[in-house]
Task: inverse folding
């Protein structure tokens, strides 16, 4: 009998057997390893997770090399051995679909995918403060509508400037479009929801942007009290949630509202909710992510995983002896409790805070994930 006939073809394992094995794989890192074996295994991971991956936290590497960063897994509760070529002393102003964004010293926006080692330079932002140390804080958040490497119609929306205004562009445009909403400002988050571009400000104003005209449509007024931070997130059943964080005592608490569109008036009603079911939400400087804990039982249901993304224009607010969210906290909506999941070393406390990033579900074997 030839030796080759004794060898197993892992790509031809029966689908039900493959799914039963994958069901036992709890670690996010191990799922990446699993998906990297071959394309059928990568497809099985995608189908099991319904296209969603658990975010990992981008943090300074173990060896204290200021040119690389590593990934922290909440499911494994450990730092991976992977090294990504990202300087950890530069603030990341956005994380969408595996892409990170940075403001360059020349005031251009750099999109960088560390998993594909791909860079895209976007046009220069005007009206930016011409001080190197201040530039990286002039963009509060950048979000992408789709993967710019796969979709030439990708839309980029930026919350920008001293008053957190909105600007946007389509990939390939030579300049940014500045959105005029009158006296309304202090936008905190942007979400692409069912074909609409939605933005929320500090006091609950919800607007929908017409990207053809640049005109905003106000769906909800700014009639809520000031919040420390505000997020929009779509959960697994398609509902749209408004998250508002308050820090009257550290580390604070969240209120959650379901946003319901009234088809007759075209306005949005806010309905406060105390339970988000089997959803776990990941918020911060990233594009907000929701996962179903029925697919990822190692995550806490009805909870919010959060890390710091608040800045006051030129540097992060830090109160002496108070460990602002340079690690990972969770807030449980049922009992209002908060827990610390990851605490970095004290030497990293003065650095820009870490950010959630979505690693690819399937990666080629020759990528840096072979280092896991």
Result:
């Amino acid at each position: 009998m030839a030796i080759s006939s004794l060898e197993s073809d892992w790509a031809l394992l029966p689908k039900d057997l493959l799914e039963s094995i994958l069901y036992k794989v709890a670690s996010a890192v191990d799922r990446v390893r699993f998906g990297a074996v071959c394309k059928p295994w990568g497809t099985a991971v995608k189908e099991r997770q319904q296209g969603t991956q658990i975010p990992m936290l981008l943090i300074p590497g173990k060896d204290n090399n200021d040119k690389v960063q590593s990934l922290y897994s909440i499911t494994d509760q450990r730092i991976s051995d992977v090294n990504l070529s990202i300087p950890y002393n530069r603030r990341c102003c956005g994380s969408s679909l595996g892409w990170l964004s940075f403001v360059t010293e020349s005031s251009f926006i750099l999109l960088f995918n560390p998993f594909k080692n791909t860079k895209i330079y976007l046009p220069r932002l005007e009206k930016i403060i011409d001080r190197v140390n201040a530039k990286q804080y002039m963009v509060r958040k950048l979000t992408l509508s789709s993967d710019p490497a796969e979709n030439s119609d990708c839309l980029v929306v930026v919350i920008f400037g001293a008053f957190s205004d909105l600007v946007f562009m389509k990939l390939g445009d030579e300049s940014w479009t500045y959105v005029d909403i009158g006296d309304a400002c202090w936008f905190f988050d942007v979400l692409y929801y069912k074909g609409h571009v939605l933005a929320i400000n500090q006091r609950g104003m919800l607007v929908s942007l017409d990207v053809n005209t640049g005109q905003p449509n106000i769906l909800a007024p700014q009639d809520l009290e000031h919040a420390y931070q505000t997020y929009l997130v779509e959960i697994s059943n398609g509902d749209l949630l408004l998250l508002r964080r308050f820090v009257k005592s550290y580390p604070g608490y969240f209120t959650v509202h379901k946003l319901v569109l009234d088809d007759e008036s075209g306005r949005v009603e806010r309905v406060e909710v105390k339970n988000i079911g089997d959803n776990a939400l990941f918020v911060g400087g990233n594009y907000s992510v929701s996962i179903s804990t029925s697919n990822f039982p190692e995550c806490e249901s009805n909870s919010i995983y959060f890390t710091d993304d608040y800045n006051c224009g030129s540097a992060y607010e830090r109160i002496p002896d108070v460990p602002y969210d340079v690690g990972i906290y969770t807030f449980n909506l049922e009992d209002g409790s908060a827990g610390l999941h990851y605490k970095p070393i004290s030497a990293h406390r003065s650095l820009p805070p870490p950010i959630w990033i979505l690693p690819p579900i399937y990666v080629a074997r020759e990528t840096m994930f072979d280092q896991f």
